[in-house]
Protein 1
Amino acid sequence: MVLIQILLPRTDAASPMADGAFVRTRAELVEKFSGATAYLRSPAIGVWTSPEGEREQDEVVMVEVVTERFDRTWWKGYAQQLAERFAQEAIHVRALHIEILDEDAV
């Protein structure tokens, strides 16, 4: 099994659930993977140095899906779609091979 984690910018400080881009993304992931988990209560603070040397920061939320295999081509394309949707240069997607202990839960 593969756990896929997506870091999305928190564009609506009040609630990501009020953000149309987030709601659309969640619906797409649920449709494709039969479920998704979004960690919304405590957004993470992302900090990095831009190519120009400036310190950048934003709030992000993590969305996870579990699937049987990682389709790198599909995810690269979807990450590009998300970058456009959320007006970002890139969207961070990572895939982790996992073992599900309760096989009936999948």
Protein 2
Amino acid sequence: MPIRYKIDILEALKAAGYNTNRLRKEKLLGESVIQKMRWKKPLSWHEMGIVCGLLGCQPGNLIEYAEDESADKADTM
């Protein structure tokens, strides 16, 4: 996938005072969203907005575009 996370979002949330217990207890993020972040799966724009609000950052601070190496190999064959 050409879009990847620049940082470990759960670690950044933890450093900002939002551990997974707090996220669930205060209903800031559900368990399914926490699992997506744990497994580095893509978040929806809504979920990304919540995370950016909690961290006080922009989506570009969390994600980046990276060339897909497997696609490059397929093109050269």
